[in-house]
């Protein structure tokens, strides 16, 4: 499979990675996050949600086959290229982009460590606190953080039920936030 993934069928596999990335982006852009759960609909708020969903994808594929690990790496590279492109679209000049990218990469890896730690310890309160600290650092209290923590737990469970083979074939399904808590509507 490794030969097929990165060998002659490279163009087909580019379509797979693009499809996976599009599914991650679509999950991060679910409107309920912004309209009902008070995630800031700003470039930084969207970065937080995309980072969270990229983390969920990476978390799912950790420890899987070398092919799955390669796919995970390709997707993280795609994520950072997308962030770079977004910074440039926001008008950040060539001189400022590397500095901002370094800061955003540090933010991403810090967040993933906090989320991973909370999930590994099955610490819902810790996950809720990490999400509140990262997604809404400006808010003294963010009650919707618990809804997002429930969503993250639900997403981990749903992703765990998907086979690595189906994921590396381009099929990825995140839950709808509405499935986590219908009262959010």
* Count, helices: 10
Poorly predicted parts:
179-185
Which overall shape is indicated by the principal axes computed on the Cα atoms?
globular
Q: What multimeric state do the chains show?
A: single chain
Report the span from N to C terminus.
44 Å
SSE sequence, one letter per element: HHHHHHHHHH
How large, in whole angstroms, is the Cα Rg? 17 Å
The total count of strands amounts to 0
Major pleated sheet = none
- Category from helices, strands and their pairing: mainly alpha
How much of the sequence lies in strands comes to: under 5%
User: Would you tell me the overall average pLDDT?
Assistant: 87
What does the model show?
InterPro entries: Ubiq_cyt_c_chap, Ubiqinol_cyt_c_chaperone_CPB3, Ubq_cyt-c_CBP3-rel. This is Cytochrome b pre-mRNA-processing protein 3. Belongs to the CBP3 family. Residues 36-174 form the Ubiquinol-cytochrome c chaperone domain. The structure is a single chain. By secondary structure, the chain is mainly alpha-helical. Helix content is 72%, strand content 0%. It has ten helices and no strands. It has helices at residues 2-6, 10-28, 31-35, 43-61, 66-89, 96-120, 124-135, 145-160, 164-168, 177-180. Helix 2 (10-28) packs across helix 4 (43-61) and helix 5 packs across helix 6 (96-120). The longest helix is centred in the middle third of the chain and has 25 residues, at 96-120.
